[in-house]
Amino acid sequence: MCITLKSCFDIFSEEWHVNVFVKEHNHNILSPEELCFLPANRSITLEDEKQIFLYKEAGLSIRQILRVMELEKNLKHSELAFFDRDIRNLYGKVKRMLGDNDAKNIMQYMKSTKEENKMFQYAFTLDEERRLENLFWCHAQSFEWYQQYGDVVVFDTTYKVNSYDMPCGIFVGVDNHGKTILFGCALLRNETTSTFKWLMKTFVSIMKKPPKTIITDQDPWMSEAISFEMPTTKHSFCIWHITSKFSCWFAALLRNDYQKWCGDFYELYKMTIPEEFEHNRCLIVEKYNLQNNKHVQGLYKVRHFWTPAYLRDFFFGGMITTGRSESINAFIKRFVSSHTCLTDFAKQLDIAVQEISQQRSHNKVIATLRPVSLITKSPLERQVFEVFTPFVFKKFQEEFARAALYAIMKLIATSTW
To answer: Are the CB atoms for 223 and 200 separated by under 8 Å?
Structure first.
């Protein structure tokens, strides 16, 4: 279409005249169902914005927010005046408005939380430009849990779902009910040796003592930091993180024998006697002709970090992998996304601590009310029953029942001439 501004007569104002119109170049008129996709017909009111951010704080995803608001307004699916992209744009707009104040806000949040509860602890570092670099914090409840159950700690940094893609380090453990508890959290600029050294030093300083055992993934920078800042702590690697790399290490190399290799490796892993492990390892490596494989050689060099045969003298509290931290990650992911600002991230971790605390109270009540039957008439079993939680007592019962299957006999050697 070509239009021109013309004035037909002096007494008339100028008018737009269509000079050329090519009908074939036009498109079909949009249907009423399609009109809603036009940007001009999409808008989020201030009231809707408040509702969206309220649901976001409650942990709802964008899809869930849309569905809840459809039900509230009694609308059919997709009849709202905005879509998921509009909500994402709203999140991005708020994120840009926060800008440089995000780090300032989380530090103010840490300060105000400390003023409310003196037992709350946090530490941080700034870079050369005085920007927030690393941050560690520990709630009062988490500190108490660590003093009681901090012998074994799982440290994991696989979680990165905040708006700056900063690694989130979480320290977790297990309580006397067998449930996961959170000891502390950290936001890190990077995953270098110097960063991990600062974190481990800060953790020991704030928690007043190092753990007896710490389980991490196989990270050389983390290993160096732990050996330097926690020299008395036994460091172990998570076997799950190791075996998760097997497919890219050995699948193409072994082809049809890959599954058999995994089965043989699992049998090797279960061995608890060093001599037995060493003997069978040589046989398995020869069986698959992996004597010169760099990954096999590398695993053997660090066998004291992951092989139960060399770890049987250390206490792990039933935690041989970082699976404990994965349950915390699953909980946090219900509340945060790539659009989550630092302060909201810290607030949601506060909720995690509160939920764990509530669950512990619930477990305590269950332990008091749930009946547990004795399987023997031994006074030892009766005494343990009165002291241990049901979770720990059940484990004791299993071992105590096995002990009854064995008999101890004293043999006197006689000499013959």
So the answer is: no
